[in-house]
Amino acid sequence: MRLLLLFSRKGPGALLLSGVVASAVMFVVATGAKADYSDYGLASVGASLSTVQAGAHPDFTSTFELKTNPASPADSNGLHEPYARTRDIMVSLPPGLTGNPNAVGQCTTLQLTTAFDAEGGGCPLDSQVGIAVISLYNVHTLTEPVYNMAAPSGDTVARLGFLATTLPNYINVSVRSESDYGLTATLEGVPANEKLVSAATTLWAVPGATSHDTERLTPREAYLETKSESPPRSFGLAPAPFMTNPTSCGEHQQVDFATDSYQLPGQFSEASAPLPEITGCGLVAFDPSLSVAPTSTEAASPSGLDAVLSLPQDETVGGRATSQLRHATVALPKGVTLASGAADGLEACSAEQVRLETRLPAACPGGSKIGSAEFDVPALARVLHGEIYQRTPRKGDLFGVWLVADELGVHVKIPGEVHADQNTGQLTTVFNGTAQARGNPQVPLRELRLHFKGGPRGVLATPSSCGIYQTHYEFAPWSGGATVSGDTPMTIDRSCNTGGFSPKLSGGTVNPAAGSFSALITSLTRESGEENVSGLDVTLPPGLLARLAGVPLCTGSAAQSGNCPAGSQIGTVTVASGPGPSPLWIPQPGKDPTVVYLGGPYGSAPYSLVVKVPAQAGPFDLGTVITRAGIYVDPETTQVTVRSDPLPQILEGVPISYRTIRVDVDKADFALNPTSCETMAIRAQVNSDSGASASPRSRFRAGGCGELGFRPRLALKLRGKTRRGGHPSLRATLTMPRRGANIRGARVALPHSEFLDQAHINTVCTRVQFVAEQCPAGSVYGSARAFTPLLDQPLEGPVYLRSSSHELPDLVADLRGQIHVVLAGRIDSINGGIRTTFTGVPDAPVGKFVLSMKGGAKGLLVNSRDLCKHADRATAAFTGQNGKIHNFRPRLRDGCRGRSREGSR
Known about the structure:
It is built from 6 helices and 58 strands.
């Protein structure tokens, strides 16, 4: 991009001192017929090119004439006096019409101002780039040499200079960075004693051409000797093109003029002169090439990127300029994606901060810089250095960039759009320039070098496997010719041994004291380069439960949106994503927090988790991710398994490579430790995005079980007939003291007064029927209720006789409510009596358990004697989860109500 020629900057004020003094005198002294300053303005303007061939090197001539007062006396040249004295003149060239100040020599301010000195003064011949024919009122018409001057600092990219009479005039050339990147030449502060009437300036296509040898005037020849030609003088340098035509054809071109006066400063008169349309774009070459290389060739790692765009330029006198680049599209290989770790601490730069469409330097935050740029433009004295900034995200353009340079009087601000494929994450970058410029700047460019930052927080992630990957590019020229497309390779050849799937699991309670409440933490980690996590189940150890009572559930649309009641929150989640040693951690400081809510039924699960993760990092807000996980309770062990939905793998085109998933369940008095201190484990079943699976475990063990008490109480009551042969009903009520160990096993043997009447065992539910929940009504022989502090409501359900592998059927309580629990007891006979044994009782706190068995025709018990004649006791043996044993003989209450009993004394 050859941001060449015409930028604006005021010339040194000291050189205009004589003009300022003359201006002051002008306001005091009358000048003949009174003029109306408001009549000041441009009478006519004109512009021409010596050739309209695209990319060719033309002589460019611009002319203007000011309005004059016909009532003023005519001078010797027949000119009338202008209505006011000219202060500033601006000439704006169409985009693409450029000049190259580096093709010729330079003249210094000292050399120009000493042009009339006897010795050593004047500008070098090789710095003359054209001539200016100037008409001043009451001064003969001057043909002055125009020189290529050393440009001052600031917004001036080039400067031209000439002497009008003996006074220096400087034309500062600036780039219209605020609009179309065309060039504007500004002569600011015309000496006020010069009554300018008209001027015609010609800039030469090739200043070193021999055809200009007789036009190489000196200022002394031009003014004192009133010459318009000089003796033949050699240029002194090898000829090189100075002016170059645009490489865009078929578009309207014009040169815009504006001027104001000292009498009415700031009130500009404006006019435009058409230029003929540029033709012959088909003869203009366009042969760009691109090379792309990651800063890291390691697979599955964070990386930067180095890209070099080359546009060979024909800078010969007889050649034509290469077409400028209008549009650029670069698609990185599949597998090269955005690295989420780069967003950590990243800021963004808005259009206001970059100062788009202004000539002001960008003021982007330092934290928004993601790379650097170098522009090699033939017209600039050196390589132009710039930066790449992250643009403020907007809908449909989250990852855009600014390509910025603020040096050498140039203010490049080119927006780039970075599109991430929603399914694959493949990145496509498009540079189409600004709307006003209708494309990228029409400036000759030899080379553009872009460097995106690498390191642990590099902006990109390399593919997960080694190989050669192709970047596809498409470049469209301003000439309207065919788009050039191609592919350029990049190589990934280090740390190729990626893949595999062996995630690690850690977890436990913060305070593992048996039977106490504590925060619960589980964390799954995966190494960079391994296959990604796509889903997981976590199974807690038996007895590690939660108190659901009193916790409002998040259900319905609230669960779908994550807008759950605050009381439903039971914890938070922390997620790390991205390759390499510095992944991105969510939530980020200052961003919305993550939340884990207790949800209602989900699928076949009685409860669920609603995990709400705002995907916010740096300047990006990718929305809120809601993930549901069913909470399943094993009906026989009450062991809890949390089974997640498939985890999102990509969000707004950004892959989510899970490195850590940590869930903190920290609601007060929610997670409850088991009362068993056996060594157990938290287990996970983890699936990868390619179908692999892993089963990591984390050791878990509660402590302090021996300090827990264990003293269950059992009350047994018979109702109904008490005579021998009667079939009474039975009500067994078990109560447990609070904060003690839970029951692991129980064995209760009834006294010899009660036998099992096998003749009453009629219908038995098969195991198949039980699993299918299709037990016949006749298999119900009682009911049960269980009260637990973990639930709001008791569990209750029928008691079945279910087929067993033993001689007698099992006694099974099918308890339902907020969860489903199955208690199975083995029935057998001991010493002719009936005994029921429950083994593997869930490690869950139960304050009260009531078992009611039917009597009469459905009674399984039969009296072997008259109950009122004897006081009977059962034999009970209970084992706690902490290993403690409690044996006792509860009295069998029979409803005799004080009737005399034989042997009761």
